[in-house]
Amino acid sequence: MSILLRLTTLVIFTSMITFTGYSQESNLGNWLIYIGSKKINTKWNLHHEIQYRNYDAIGDLEQLLLRTGLGYNLTENNNNLLLGYGYILSENYQNSNNEKVSVNEHRIFQQFISKQKVGRLGLTHRYRFEQRFVESDFKMRFRYFLSMKVPFTKNKDGIDGPFYFSAYNEIFLNTKTSIFDRNRLYGGVGYTFSKQLRLELGYMNQFFETSSRDQINLIAFVSL
How many CA atoms lie within 13 A of 34 on its CB side? Predict the structure, then answer.
């Protein structure tokens, strides 16, 4: 775990430098996200995910992402290893006109998720390594995701209330050429309907080396 802690510190430090080192122009888009998990037994789980990303409020497709994976719990609730596959269709605008070009990507990834509880604060660390087949190109990328979740209130029995605040930062690092790929910073408000369903609405800024985009995210988390 000491190696993971050092890596976490390095990535956070790199993220902070990157955030302050660039000035970006912003455009508002919208992401509709479904994240599901199916418990097979106490050890195994099936991950499934759909993301519909738009350049504007809705209707101008930027990217369609489909992702699935098989996970294994090292401990009952806190540490999970997962092997996954993703298909990504990107609709990229050309620089000189308003025509789009479709780009297909197939992605294999491995990830480790570790969860911690510090008082009322829930922390999640996710380390993900991706092998990306983008049309005829092959690329690899490392991602580190750190999130926090804290309930607004507790009831008289000490149980968390349904409303909560959520925030995360995720940095993407390439294995060659330009090391920094992008960074995502998010904050939102969620509501827990049950152990099986919660919804979040939030704002995310995604920034690159010389540009950025703002997103309104609507996320559904479903556990079966």
Answer: 11
Closest C-alpha to 151, from 110, 176, 121, 123: 121
Dist CA 46 CA 215 (whole Å): 28
Q: What is the pLDDT of residues 52-100, one digit of tens each?
A: 999 987 778 999 999 999 999 998 778 999 999 999 999 998 876 788 9
| Exposure letters 109-125 (e unless 16+ CB within 10 A, then b) | bebebbbeeeeeebeeb
Instruction: Work out the average pLDDT over 126-153.
Output: 96
Q: What is the DSSP string of 144-187?
A: EEEEEEEES-B-TTSPBPSEEEEEEEEEEEESSSSSEEEEEEEE
Mind listing the domains of the chain with CATH numbers? Answer: 2-223 (2.40.160.40)
